[in-house]
Amino acid sequence: MTASESKSQVETDLDRARERLSFYEQFDEIIKQNIASSSALLKEASARFDSDFAEERDRYRTLLSEILDDVTLLQAQSERLARRVNDALDELETNLPAAAEAVASVAPGIVAEAPPEAAAVIGSAATGTRKRPDRAKPAPAEPAPPARTVPDSPVLPKVAPVAELPPSGPASTTLLVHGVPRASAALGLKSYIEQLDFVSAVEPREFAAGLLRLQVDGSRPLTLGDLSGWNMAARIELKNTGADLLELGLAPA
Questions:
Q1: Closest alpha carbon to 178 in 205, 208, 143
Q2: Chain segment 26-62, per-residue pLDDT in tens
Q3: Bridge partners for 214 per DSSP
Q4: Are 142 and 217 contacting, i.e. CB atoms less than 8 angstroms apart?
Q5: Which residues contact 102 (CB under 8 A, 6 or more apart)?
Q6: CB within 8 A of 31, min separation 6: which ones?
C-alpha cells in the first residue's frame, strides 16, 4: 500500500467517524427534547389533575351544602306540620262533643245510617247525654217487678234475679255489646234502654270496630231480660255478667 492509498483510507475512516459522531449528537439532542417534552407533559397532567380535583371537591362541597339546606328546610316544614296536626287534634277534641250534641238534637227520633267511623260521635256524646226525668221511686213495701226473660234462651239461668238486688238503691251497669254492625243499631239500643222504666240515664262510652260500651244508671242493674223487647234481641248471646257488668254479643244476621 502506497502512502497516497494510506492517506485516503485514513480520511475515509475519519469521514465515517465524523458521520457517526454527528448521528450520535443528533440522537442525543432528540433524547433531550423527548425528556423535556415528557417533563412538560407530566407537569401539565399534574396541574390538570390538581385543577380537576379542586373542581370536583368544590362541586361536591356545593352539592352537599345544597342537600344540607334542603334537609334543614324539610325538618322545619315537618316541625310546622307536626304542630299544625297537634293543634288540629286539640281543636277536634275540644269541639267534637259540642258537635255531637248538635247532631243528636237535630232529629232525636230519627236513627240515621252511619258508617263505623261514627264511633267518635257516640263516644264523645257522653258529656251531653240526655237525662230522663226523675220518676217516683216505688214504695219500700212494693216488690220490684220481675225481670223479663228471652224465650228459649239457654243463658238466662245465669242472670241474677232482680229480687235479690236492693229495690230502691241506685245502680250503675256497664253494658258491653260485641258485633254491633253499624251506628244506627248502637243508637237504637241506646234509645231502647232509655225508655226502660227503671233507667235514669244512658251514657255512651265507646263504639269502635263493632264494640259498643254504655253506662246505664237506674234504680237497679240492667239484666239480659230487660233487652227482650229490642228489635235485635233474637241475635243476643250472653258472654259475661256480674254485679255491675253485662257483656253480650250479637250473632251475624
A1: 208
A2: 888 899 889 988 888 888 888 888 888 888 889 898 9
A3: 175, 204
A4: no
A5: none
A6: none
